[in-house]
Design brief:
- The protein is mainly alpha-helical and about 325 residues long.
- It contains 13 helices and 10 strands.
- Helices cover about 50% and strands about 10% of the residues.
- A hairpin with a 5-residue loop joins strand 9 and strand 10.
Length: about 325
């Protein structure tokens, strides 16, 4: 009897020691990594042994029995999130599983710039090394369908901003977020328009977006944005042509060589606001929030013309005679420099 009791006691001690050692391996012992920093990718749907295989294949040495035991004990294996993770030594199994279940993935970012065209947006996303270029083989119309956009043309629909994403994310995910952000900004500005006593003469939020895109390309100077918007709104109200160089350049497309000539202004396209009245059929660029706000709340001034001073700002005039004098003045200044 005493012998059996002694054997049982030794077995309990051994089990306790094994349990303690196992706990130490889980809680305290650093995992062996193939390098001081390891890039780890967990694919969607990975579970159980597949997770252990992925860890070992990518340079994280963890015994499968210990991993599976830890996953069963924790009970959160279904919450392990797919994505890319950067692991740095030292890291314990517990810390690793905490990160995987939190979805503490490696983040990268991409910046979309105010005034870019959709072609420039696509080029920036395509060359980003940490994005999956899932849109590369898609037409513009197919891209819009994939992100749930109802509009037939992509220009102007995406908000310029910096977007953080998990390494290995699809470029379509970034585009969808940018689209939703632009829709929200436009709706907020459009709703505020209804409270104004003399709102701009747009029939739809999309028309306001078109105007915002023109304002975005016409000036990068914050103080002039609402004045530029005022000039174009005043022209719309009077039935005057907008006569915007950026719209004409957009209509020329890849044929534009950087030098806008008189014949270009006389060449009719659907975007040439020297030959056609009203707004262009679509936006011509990606406007930021400030340009959207300016288009929907322009300055209350009577100006109908503006000309660049050469320092980034513009001179605004109420009539053609004053405008011609301003043009002559600043052309003379540029000629003397």
């Amino acid at each position: 009897m005493k012998r059996l009791l002694a054997v049982a006691l030794l077995a309990l001690v051994a089990l306790g020691a094994a349990a303690g050692w196992t706990w130490w391996r889980y809680e305290r012992a650093p995992l062996a990594l193939a390098a001081p920093e390891v890039q780890l990718e967990i694919e969607r749907g990975a579970a159980g042994p597949a997770i252990g295989a992925a860890l070992r294949r990518q340079g994280v040495d963890v015994p499968d029995w210990l991993l599976q035991l830890a996953l069963r004990w924790r009970g959160d294996a279904p919450r392990i999130r797919a994505g890319n993770y950067e692991l740095a030594a030292p890291i314990t199994l517990r810390a690793l599983l905490d990160r995987l279940t939190r979805g503490d993935v490696t983040l990268r970012d991409v910046t979309l710039i105010e005034g870019w065209t959709f072609r420039q947006v696509r080029a920036a996303l395509a060359k980003h090394p940490d994005l999956k270029p899932e849109s590369a083989s898609l037409s513009d119309a197919e891209v819009l369908a994939r992100i749930g956009a109802a509009e037939p043309h992509p220009e102007g629909l995406f908000a310029p901003d910096t977007y953080a994403f998990a390494r290995g994310s699809s470029d379509l995910e970034v585009l969808k977020r940018a689209y939703q952000l632009q829709q929200a900004a436009l709706k907020k500005a459009w709703d505020a328009r209804m409270a104004r006593p003399d709102p701009p003469p747009y029939r739809t939020p999309y028309e306001a977006l078109i105007m915002a895109s023109i304002v975005e390309k016409e000036t990068g100077r914050e103080a002039d944005r609402v004045k530029v918007a005022a000039v174009f709104v005043n022209r719309l109200k009077r039935g005057m042509m907008l006569q915007s160089d950026p719209t004409t350049i957009y209509g020329l497309g890849e044929a534009f060589d950087g030098n806008l000539r008189k014949r270009d202004l006389q060449t009719d396209t659907t975007y040439n606001t020297y030959t056609r009245g009203g707004l262009t059929p679509t936006p011509i660029s990606m406007p930021g929030r400030a340009s959207i706000a300016a288009a929907l709340d322009p300055a209350q001034i009577p100006a109908l013309y503006f000309v660049a001073r050469g320092d980034g700002s513009s001179e605004f005039s109420n009539d053609l005679a004053a405008h011609n004098r301003a043009v002559a003045k600043y052309q003379k200044q540029r000629g003397s420099q």
